[in-house]
Amino acid sequence: AKALGDRLAEAFAEYLHHRVRREWGYGRNENLTNDELIREKYRGIRPAAGYPACPDHTEKQLLWELLEVENHTGIKLTESCAMWPASSVSGLYFAHPEAKYFAVGKIDRDQVKDWAKRKDMSLTDAERWLAPNLNYDPA
After folding, report:
1. Domain ranges within the chain, ordered by starting residue
2. Nearest Cα to 110, choosing from 136, 71, 86, 91?
C-alpha cells in the first residue's frame, strides 16, 4: 500500500506540473509521448528540497510557514523535515527554457560555515543537515 501511495503521489505531482506548464502558457502546445515525459523532454523543472539540486531539507520549514501548508493540506514536517504522511510531495516550479536539473557536489568546511551563518545555524547543525554533501569528516 505504501509503494502504491508513493507512486500515486509522484504521478499527481507530474500531472500538476503538466497543468502548470499548460496554464502558465509555456507548455500549452505540448504533445509528448509517455517516453518523452519519462525522459523529461518538456520545458521547465520541478526540483524539491532534499533532492540533489536542493539538498537543504530545512527550506521546507520556510515553505511550510509561508504557505501555511499544514493548515491547508494537513501535511506535516517531522523533526528531520520528512513529510507526513509519507506519500506527500513538495517542490518548486521553474519555467525558464534553459532550466536543467543538476546535483550539488561535495562542499568544503568554508562553504558549510558560510551557509550556516546565512541560515543562522550552528556549524554542527549545518553539518548534520548537509552530511551527504560534506567533502570532509566533521568529527
Report:
1. 2-104
2. 136
CATH of span 2-104: 3.10.196.10
Query: pTM for this structure?
Result: 0.81
Q: Which of 93, 88, 7 minimizes the C-alpha distance to 42?
A: 93
Question: Nine-digit cell at 46?
Answer: 520541478
**Nearest in space to 61 (alpha carbons), one of 74, 46, 80, 45:** 80
Instruction: Report d(CA 103, CA 13) in Å as an integer.
Output: 21
In the chain, DSSP assigns E strands to 76-77, 83-84
Query: pLDDT tens digits, residue range 94-125?
Result: 999 999 999 999 999 999 999 999 999 999 99
